[in-house]
Design goal:
Blueprint lengths: L2 H79 L1
C-alpha cells in the first residue's frame, strides 16, 4: 500500500469516529430533553395533586363545620324544649 491509501484510511477512520461522537452527543441531548419533559410533567402532576388535596381538605372542613352547626342547633332546640 502507498502513503495515499493510509492517509485516506486515516481520514475515513477519523470521519467515522467524528460521526459516532456526533450521534452520541445527539442521543445524549435527546435523552436530556426527554428527562426535562418528564420532570416538568411530574412537577405538574404533583402541583395538581397538592391542589386536589387542598380542595378535599377544605371540603372536609366545611362538612365538619356543617355537622357541628347541625349538632349545635339540635342541642339548642333540645334545651329550648325544656
Amino acid at each position: 500500500m502507498n502513503d495515499t491509501t493510509w492517509t485516506d484510511m486515516g481520514r475515513l477512520a477519523d470521519a467515522m469516529k467524528t460521526a459516532a461522537e456526533m450521534q452520541n452527543r445527539a442521543e445524549a441531548a435527546r435523552r436530556s430533553k426527554k428527562a426535562e419533559r418528564e420532570q416538568e410533567e411530574f412537577e405538574e402532576k404533583l402541583m395538581r395533586a397538592a391542589a386536589s388535596k387542598a380542595e378535599l381538605e377544605g371540603l372536609a372542613s366545611r362538612i365538619k363545620g356543617n355537622e357541628a352547626a347541625v349538632l349545635r342547633d339540635q342541642l339548642v332546640n333540645l334545651i329550648s324544649a325544656f
